Each structure stands twice: as C-alpha cells, then as structure tokens.
Amino acid sequence: MSHDGIVLVVMASIINDDKVLIIKENKPNALNKWTFPGGHIEYGEDILVAAKREVKEETGLDLKLVGTTGVYNFISSTNDQVILFHFIGEVTDGHINLEEEGITESMWIMVNELAKFKKEDLREPQVLNQIIDNLLKEKVHSISLYNEKKF
Question: InterPro entries, per this entry (predicted)?
Fold first, then answer.
C-alpha cells in the first residue's frame, strides 16, 4: 500500500530448525536479489494477515507468526519511504511453491551465512542487514506487540 510516497510492507523470516528461508527476486526493481518473503499491505488489511498472505503467495507456505524484530523505516532504491513490519514465523502447512511471477529461487540457509552475502546480492541491503543482525543477536519481540484488527 502506498500513500503520498510512503509504502507499507510486511516481511517474514521463516525459521525451520536453525535455518531461514530466503527467496530470489527477478523483478524490474530487484534483479536477482535475495530477500525474505513479503510485500505490500493492502488497503484495510490487518498487518498480521498481510504477512501470512504475502508468505503464502510467494512461497506456498502457511505460517504461524511467533515474533517480530520490529518496524524499519527507510528510503528504498526506488526513492519511496518504506515502513516495513518484519515478523518471524514457523511453517504450519504447505510446501514450497514458487509460482508468483518474479520469484525465481528459494533456499534454506543458516542465519549467520546471510551475513556473508554481498550488498549487491541483497534487496535493500541496509535494511536486510539490520534484520539479519537482529536475528543473529536474537533481538526478537513478542508478536503480542501487534493488535489484530477487530473491526
């Protein structure tokens, strides 16, 4: 969702054992860039619902959100102000299915291995590196910080 140049997005790090799922995008504004699954929040959509929906659309996986590393505010490579809500999730159902256009690969990787990626291989590396650092330092907060939409 975008409003006056502000883009609201969700992203999720899906943890399985000691590994996290990353995807490679091949989109006009992110050619062959690795990132976590995520995308735009739709108008009127609950943030938590948006995170689960985006993960399902991009990976085919159903997710239980178990934590958050927080909210990130930055100027993107397309010069938009982005407010990103990052979650941590666990798979509850499904199998990896990369049918969404622009998603070309997925990989389970140790979180500490993510820190070794070159900046040019990551989508929005300044933010991804903050998220990776928070994951490595286990700076994770309760999902209860977010109130589900009740109306």
Answer: Nudix_hydrolase, NUDIX_hydrolase-like_dom_sf, NUDIX_hydrolase_CS, NUDIX_hydrolase_dom
